[in-house]
Amino acid sequence: MARPHATVDSMAPGNPFDDPLRFERRVPECALVIFGASGDLNRRKLMPALYRLAYDRRLSAGFAVVGVSRTPMSDDQFRDKMRDAVQRFSEDTEFSPEVWDTFARDLYYAPGDIGDDAAYQRLGAKLADIETTRHTGGNVLFYLSTQPSQYAPAVHGLGGAQLGQGTGWRRLVVEKPFGHDLASARTLSDRLHEVFQEADVYRIDHYLGKETVQNILAFRFGNGIFEPLWNRRYVNHVQITAAESIGVEGRGAYYQESGALADMIQNHLLQVMATIAMEPSAGFHANAVRDERSKLLRSIRRMNREEILANTALGQYGPGRTGGSAVPGFRQEAGVDPHSKTETYAAATFFIDNWRWAGVPFYLRSGKRLPKRVTEIAIQFNPAPLAIFNGNAEGTAPNLLIVRIQPEEGISLKFLSKRPGSGMELRPVSMDFSYGSSFGERSPSAYETLLLDAIIGDATLYTRQDMVEASWAVVEPIQNAWRESRPDLPDYAAFSWGPQASDEMLARRGHVWRRP
Amino acid sequence: MGAQAALSPDQILRDLANLWVTIGKQGQPETGMGVLRACSLNLIVVADESDDFQALGETVVALMPEHPARAITIRLSAAADAELQGRVFSQCWMPFGQRRQICCEQIEILASGETLEDALSLVAAVAAPDLPLVGWCRSARLVERPDFAKLFQAASRVVVDSARSADARSAVGRLAQLSAEGVPVGDLAWTRLTRWREMLSQSFQNRVRRERLSGTVQVGVVYGGTPAPVTARYMGAWLMESLRAAGVAAVLNLVPDGAAPQDELVRVELTTNRMRTELSYRDHRLTLDGDGIKHCAGLPVATDYSLMREELAIVGRDPVFEHALRAAAAL
Question: Are strands A362-367 and A235-243 parallel, antiparallel or unpaired?
Fold first, then answer.
C-alpha cells in the first residue's frame, strides 16, 4: 500500500482520478546512471536495494540501470558481477532467479574514465539508445557513488556532453561527504550548480532514509501528547549515540582523512538532532520540512575555542580484545599512518539558541570499536519536582524516552513503578514499542526509500545545500580547534565506551552517558 | 496448539495468557530469543459454516505478517440451537533473515444466527484494547440483517463482498444505506477495481491529457451479462463522481457485452472531442490505449488475501469509496 506521500514539487496537481489512500506512489520511468558501479557502495547497498525494489515490483516498466566505471566489462559481465553482489549482500530478501533475470535485462554497462570526455559521449549514446528501447522517457537519475574528489569532474563531464538536460528530467544524487569544510562544501556546490539546479541535486544522508528516523516526525507531529513536553521546560538533556563495534574495516586510508567528526557528526548526527529538535513544518512538503531542519541547524550555537575545548571530546581506539582474540588499534589498521592523529571517536555538546531549547544540552557521540553497534536517541526529562518517595537512588531515576534507530528499531519510555510488596519501593521500568511487534512487514532499507524518492522527485529526506553549510558552520570551528590541540592518542581501548574526556564533558553539567 | 474454552471473556483471556506463557517457553530453547507478540489490530471474521474454512484460515494466516492482529473468527452454524464454543491458538512465523519468531493469536468461536449477538458481545470483551477493530463479514445473508449495524457497532471498519450477493443493485443499495447510517463499510468488489483505477489515473498524470478532458466526456463501461455487475456500477459511479468533482460534464453509458463472461468488467472508455482513452481487460492483462500511448500490465486474479491485504491497510474512512458507493446506489 501507498505510504502517505509528501507533495512532490514536479508532479502536476489536480488529477481527478487520484486516490492516494490506495494507489502506490507513481514511480516514473527513468534510467539510473551509477558512477562508481564497480565500487563497494554500489555492490553492498545500491544494487541490493534496486533488486529489492524490483522484487517488490516498485520499479516502472521503463526502468534501466547504466553502470559506469573504469573497469572494462561487457553488459553481461556487469550483470554477473551485480548478481553476485545481490546474492551476497541482500540481507533480508530471498534471491529469486526469475526476478533477477527480469531485472538484469535492464542492466547496462558503460566503461569509461570520469576524466575522459569521450566516455560521456558514449554514455550519451547509450542513454539515447535506452530511451528508445526501454522507454525511459528521457528521464535520467545520475548517482555519484565515487570518491568525493570525482564529484566535480563527473558533473563537469556530464555538462560538457549536454547530459544535464534532455527530453525528460535530469537529477543528480551525491553521496556524503559534501566537502571537508565550509569553503569546500560551497565550492562543490558551485560546481554542481554549473550543470544542475539546486532542486535537481539530491544530497543523500542515508540516516534520514531509515524508517525510525522518519518515524520521529510521525511520533512528534502525529501525536498530541509528546509535543507539549518537547521543550526546555520538561527536557533536561538529549543524548544521541551512534556506536559501532567494528573498526575501519578496510577504509583506513579514507577514514584517516575524515575522522569521526566529519564522517558522522557533521552529517548523520546533526541531521538526526535537527529532526528531533525542529519545529513542526506547515505541511509534509519537501521544502517545508527541509526549511525547518535548516532553521534548526542554523540555530545551533557556534562555539569559540574555549567553549569547544570544554564541550567536545575526541579519541582514538587502541588495541583491545574481544571474544578471546586481540584486535588492532587504529594506528595498526591497514592503510593507516602509524602516527595518525585522526579521531575515531567524537563527542560534542551543542546548544540550540531558540525559545524551545535554550539551555538544553544536546550530547552527540559517535565512535568506532565501541562495545556494541547501536544508534539511539535518549531524551532525559526533568525529575519530578519533589521526591516524596525517599529511600534509594533508583527511586529518583529520571524519565527517559529512547528512540532506537538500530538495531531492534523501536521506542521505549522509562518510568518509575512501585515494586510489588509492602512499602513504597520504586523501580525503573520500561514501556517498549518494537516495530516488529506492531508492523510485521519488513521495513525497507534506507537506500530503497531514498532511491525511490529520488526517482519520484521527492526530496523531503535529502539534504539541501543550506543545511550542509549550516552543519559545516557548526563543525568547522571544532575541526580547527582540534587541529591545534589534540590529546595524546590513542586514548581509549577497543571495546570500551570511549575516552575519559567524553565522560568528563558530561560530568561538568552533572550528567552521565547512558549505557545503551 | 489449541484448547477448548468455556465461553466467558475471562476464560478466553486467561487461555490467551497461558498460550503466551507456553509459546514463550517453547521459543527460548530454539533460538534463545523467545518470541515477539505482534498485534496491530483486531480482525473479526464472520463466515457461514458452509464457507471454506480451511482456505479462510490460510488467508488469515497469510495476512498476519503484514497486518499482525488478534484474529477472531466466528463460524456461523446453520443450526439455530448451536451452543457458543471457542478455542484459542497461535500463528507464528520466522521473518526471512531474522532469528526471532513473531506470533499472533487467534480465537475461533462457533455460533448460530441466534447466538451471534452474544458472540459479538464476547468479541467486544476479548478484543485487544485501544486497537482498531476491523470486521470482515463474508456472509451475504448477514449483511441483510436489520441489526447488522448494531452487530458491528464497535468496528472501526466493516468489509463485505457485495459480489457474493445475487442482486448487485440491492447489494450496493444496502451498503449505501449502511454507510449513510454511519457504518464505515468497505467492499471487496470495489477493491477489485484498484488496479483498473490506478492505471487509468496514471494515464492522466500528464497535464496535457487532463486538459483534453473538456467539454462533455462520454463514459462507457462495458461488462458481461445482465444486469450490470457491482464492479461495473462502481466503475461508472467513480468515473462520474471524479469528473463531477473536477467540474467536468459527463454522460455514463453502462453497456452489456453479450459475448463476455457473466459479471466480468470488460472495458472502460473515456471519449471527448479531443481524446479517447480505453482501458480493457483480456487474459489477465489490462491494456490502456489512448493518445498514442499503449500500456499493458498484468492483472492476476484477485484473491481474498490480496483484497483484504489492501483493505486492512486502511484503518479510517475511505472517502473516495464512500462517494462512489453513494453514486453507484443512485444509478
Answer: parallel
Please indicate whether, in this complex, the C-beta atoms of A1 and B100 are within 8 angstroms of each other.
Answer: no
- Please state the pTM of the whole predicted model: 0.78
Contact B44, B158 (CB under 8 A): no
pLDDT in tens, B112-136: 877 888 888 788 888 888 888 999 9
Of the two residues A324 and A120, the one the predictor is more confident about is A120
Residue type, B278: E
Q: Which three cell numbers stand for residue A485?
A: 590541540
Q: Which residues of A are catalytic?
A: 268
Q: Residue holding cell 491458538?
A: B89
Residue B100 touches chain A, beta carbons under 8 Å: yes
Is B96 touching A (CB cutoff 8 A)? Answer: yes
DSSP code at position A35: E
CA distance B88 to B86: 7
**B210:A94 CB<8 A:** no
Whether residue A99 contacts residue A66, with contact meaning beta carbons closer than 8 Å, is answered with no
Q: What is the pLDDT of residues A228-244, one digit of tens each?
A: 999 999 999 999 999 99
**Distance separating alpha carbons of residues A256 and A344, to the nearest angstrom:** 9
Shortest alpha-carbon distance between residue A390 and chain B (Å): 35
Helix axes A47-55, A75-89, angle to 10 degrees: 80
B132 touches chain A (CB under 8 A): no
Best residue of B320, B322, B323 to probe chain A, by most A CBs closer than 10 Å: B320
As beta bridge partners, residue A184 has: none
- Using alpha carbons, select from B79, B102, B105 the residue that is nearest to residue B5: B105
Strands A317-318 and A140-144: unpaired
Maximum mean pLDDT: which of A430-444, B39-53, B181-195: B181-195
Extract the runs of DSSP E, i.e. beta strands, from B61-132: 69-77, 85-93, 101-112
Q: Does the predicted interface ipTM exceed a cut of 0.90?
A: no
**Which residues in chain B are closer than 8 Å to A15, comparing Cβ atoms?**
201, 204-205, 210
Q: Å from B228 to nearest chain A CA?
A: 22
Q: Which residues of B touch A91 (CB under 8 A)?
A: 97
Given a contact cutoff of 8 angstroms between Cβ atoms, the answer to whether A431 and A402 are in contact is no
B65 touching A, CB under 8 A?
yes
How is A79-128 classified by DSSP, letter by letter?
HHHHHHHHHHH-SS----HHHHHHHHTTEEEEE--TT-HHHHHHHHHHHH
